[in-house]
Task: inverse folding
């Protein structure tokens, strides 16, 4: 996504400016062309020569330059995207009010390309109402904000205000660039295991980590899709991933069925409870009351509901099996999905929570394609490739089972 793209990296005057050198390096490694613009304060924290050596061109620091009569508009027109990392409180304030009195803010203001801002500052500065007002304004104006994270800050402090990880910033830059083979497509993904309350503190759950669904959401976003991720698990941050947090099968069903109305592809990777307590207790169950009688009832059939939609997305189901995947082949036929991803969660490397997965692709006619053990990110990429072939009416795949 970044290969061949022209990225302007704006650096402003915070301690985290030294990390901008690493970010520049990562962007270059991804194949991007990078030019740097720095505030004067930034040059107190990281040497312009360092950035010149990494990117192959000298950073712009002064607006009134001898070589270029208008460096900010030159950079702004050149850029496919601009990223300001770190973005100081002062620079956020300038951008929120349209003040363009230095090389970084003038470049951002002169540009019509997407802009990513990665704030970094002490917690007190970040939490000031003024800074929060500026951030709200910048979001409303269409800027993409990444971070800040919670963690160690300069001077031994700890808290919110730490620059987001440079790799995550690079990912965000890739995320705001237009293009990609799923550009203009809406992808709906579910992840994690549902939790069905027994009482306010206890639930019936499962061991799903959400990693497979997260990998699919990120892979789809990287290909340019607008992704809705309905999840019970911690979600990845990506500018093109909208996260809807849910807990129960009922909540997941409502969110999925609504989002499916304008989705092009739906990948249902969550582990959804088949049964849930019919009457969860309003207060905590007590040991003294003896073992409770928990009556279970069926949960909504999310996949079935999607399959029954009049105008439905391309539908991908997941089946976690234990031992044989025969039941998954029946499920693919019964549910009317376009593709089913089955895995044996008792197999080595495919357990819940693992970073790898060995899956079998089941097509509607019951034919199967066993894929070798690979990382969940690799499964996600290959799955999207496979879906593209199927959606374009290409080869329906595997040998009959
Ligand atoms: C040692 C030191 C560290 C600083 N670190 C930060 C910081 O992390 N974030 C921030 O917003 N401002 C920080 N500041 C304050 C900025 O440098 C100051 O607001 C400056 O005017 C920012 O200018 P600029 O946005 O034009 O680069 C720091 C100042 C000093 C002296």
Result:
């Amino acid at each position: 996504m970044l290969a061949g793209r022209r990225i302007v990296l704006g650096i402003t005057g915070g301690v985290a400016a030294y990390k901008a050198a690493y970010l520049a390096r990562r962007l270059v490694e991804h194949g991007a062309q990078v030019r740097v613009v720095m505030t004067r304060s930034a040059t107190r924290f990281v040497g312009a020569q360092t950035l010149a050596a990494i990117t192959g061109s000298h950073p712009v620091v002064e607006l009134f330059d001898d070589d270029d009569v208008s460096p900010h508009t030159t950079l702004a027109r050149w850029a496919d995207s601009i990223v300001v990392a770190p973005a100081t409180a002062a620079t956020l304030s300038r951008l929120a009010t349209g003040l363009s009195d230095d090389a970084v803010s003038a470049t951002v203001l002169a540009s019509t390309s997407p802009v990513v801002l990665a704030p970094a500052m002490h917690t007190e500065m970040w939490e000031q109402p003024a800074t929060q007002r500026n951030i709200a304004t910048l979001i409303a104006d269409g800027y993409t904000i990444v971070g800040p994270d919670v963690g160690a800050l300069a001077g031994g402090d700890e808290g919110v205000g730490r620059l987001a990880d440079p790799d995550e910033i690079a990912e965000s830059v890739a995320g705001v660039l237009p293009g990609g083979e799923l550009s203009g497509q809406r992808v709906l993904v579910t992840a994690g295991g549902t939790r069905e309350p027994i009482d306010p503190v206890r639930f019936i759950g499962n061991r799903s980590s959400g990693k497979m669904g997260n990998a699919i959401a990120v892979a789809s976003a990287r290909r340019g899709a607008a992704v809705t991720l309905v999840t019970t698990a911690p979600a990845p941050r990506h500018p093109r991933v909208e996260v809807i947090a849910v807990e129960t099968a009922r909540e997941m069903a409502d969110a999925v069925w609504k989002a499916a109305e304008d989705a092009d592809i739906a990948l249902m990777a969550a582990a959804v409870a088949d049964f849930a307590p019919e009457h969860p207790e309003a207060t905590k169950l007590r040991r003294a009351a003896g073992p409770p009688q928990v009556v279970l009832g069926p949960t909504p059939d999310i996949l079935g509901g999607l399959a029954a939609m009049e105008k439905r997305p391309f539908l991908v189901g997941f089946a976690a099996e234990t031992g044989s995947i025969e039941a998954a082949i029946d499920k693919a036929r019964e549910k009317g999905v376009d593709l089913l991803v089955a895995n044996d969660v008792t197999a080595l490397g495919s357990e819940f929570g693992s970073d790898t997965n060995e899956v079998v692709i089941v097509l509607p006619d019951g034919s199967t394609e066993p894929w070798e053990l690979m990382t969940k990110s690799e499964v996600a990429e290959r799955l999207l490739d496979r879906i593209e072939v199927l959606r374009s009416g290409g080869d329906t795949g595997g040998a009959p089972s």
Notes: Residues 6-176 form a domain with the Rossmann fold fold (CATH 3.40.50.1950).
